[in-house]
Amino acid sequence: MKVAFITGVTGQDGAYLSEFLLKKGYQVHGLKRRASMFNTDRIDHLYQDPHIENRNFILHYGDMTDSTNLIRLIQEIQPDEIYNLAAMSHVQVSFEIPEYTGNADGLGTLRILDAVRLLGLEKKTRIYQASTSELYGKVQEVPQSETTPFYPRSPYAVAKMYAYWITVNYREAYGMYACNGILFNHESPIRGETFVTRKITRAASRIALGLQDKIYLGNLDAKRDWGHAKDYVRMMWMILQAEEAEDWVIATGKTTPVREFVRMAFAEVGVELEFKGEGVEEKGYVKACTNPEFQIEIGKEVLAVDPKYFRPTEVDLLIGDATKANTKLGWIPEFDLQDLVKDMMKNDVKLMQKDQFLKEGGYNTFNYFE
Ligand code: NDP
Ligand code: GDR
């Protein structure tokens, strides 16, 4: 039985990757931070009672900022594969907590690599590093591939740039099997609620159900290459099965503005939007509603721009060229953007119907405007 160690197991990708590896027959160990409440919603369906024998899904407390913890865990687990997914992953928040982001995302990666080296596991343990299209930052070239120069535009991206190069360095210096997956944005029904796609699908569902009046967003012109997380975790595994350790771009090759994602999400609940105005004055109004299930007033203002969501330095355009992964590893994504939006909206409408039921029963429900 192969043994995998996943940092960031409670996150979007950690949850999908755990499911994927368990289906492949792996024993999966996950690193989980101590929190004052359970923070395991995304992996609760995989949880196994610690009292049963021969478990194949095991959680360990730990933190990317704690070397001794990581060394001890890797020694105990003796993993065949490490997927280093843990990170403070929110670009805008990284401007507010830059030092912590550098520590967890940058030095955290070094701690993993060096633990493997110190323990003499260089020849046994393969390492996947969660690198990002944010490395490309300010546009140098489109589409972006493995050879495009980096120009990071946030403390998050700068920390991930250190992580990228320290991974390459340990591969070259110590002959370790360590790879970067340079993944472009990937989303899903379990995407964190403050990333733009999930913020939009939650809001569109709540607005259609009369639970919320409006969504406030930042830069509607930013363009992203959005894929489905399920396709991307499959590729993480494929990367570690390749004969040689290399770095890989994973993307759909198509780019879409945030505004268009908004339009597609509302269209899933039969709401046609009209955008008027420019820059911070831009607003979105209901032009038509074709779904009789949702009573939404024509002409209602449902979207406004709030400059608080603008970033000090923005990444305007991401579009990836995954030719290398397509041709050398045979990776072809199964979901396109329309499938992704459908999947996310289906899930959020269901979730918000639950909220609606609670509200009708006199209970409070919460919607954070982050
Ligand atoms: P999430 O934000 O959903 O998950 C991040 C995970 O990291 C969570 O499990 C979180 O724990 C954990 N974590 C954060 N800080 C620490 C720490 N100090 N110690 C231990 N664990 C920590 O991210 P995704 O699943 O979307 O992304 C996975 C990785 O891929 C990240 O490294 C991200 O930067 C990178 N990436 C993501 C892309 C995307 O589009 N999703 C694209 C390219 C790269 P907790 O649940 O306790 O907060
Ligand atoms: P990103 O994702 O920064 O690309 O990082 P995010 O969804 O946060 O932003 C995408 C684009 O949308 C614009 N935007 C808004 N973003 C947020 N979060 N909230 C808003 O209200 C809003 N309005 C407009 C942003 O300015 C940006 O241009 C994600 C993370 O998963 C990283 O960890 C990962 O490395 C990269 O994707 C690839």
From TrEMBL:
Pfam families: GDP_Man_Dehyd (PF16363)
Keyword entries, A-Z: Lyase, NADP
Cofactor requirements of the protein: NADP(+)
E.C. numbers: 4.2.1.47
Highest taxon in the source lineage: Bacteria
InterPro entries the UniProt entry points to: GDP_Man_deHydtase, NAD(P)-bd_dom, NAD(P)-bd_dom_sf
Segments passing through the bilayer: none
Any GO BP: 'de novo' GDP-L-fucose biosynthetic process
Broad enzyme group: lyase
Reaction catalyzed: GDP-alpha-D-mannose = GDP-4-dehydro-alpha-D-rhamnose + H2O
Entry keyword NADP: yes
Record domain NAD(P)-binding: where: 5-344
Gene Ontology MF, one: NADP+ binding
NCBIfam families the record matches: gmd
Record HAMAP family: GDP_Man_dehydratase
Function (record text): Catalyzes the conversion of GDP-D-mannose to GDP-4-dehydro-6-deoxy-D-mannose.
Family according to the record: Belongs to the NAD(P)-dependent epimerase/dehydratase family. GDP-mannose 4,6-dehydratase subfamily.
UniProt protein name: GDP-mannose 4,6-dehydratase
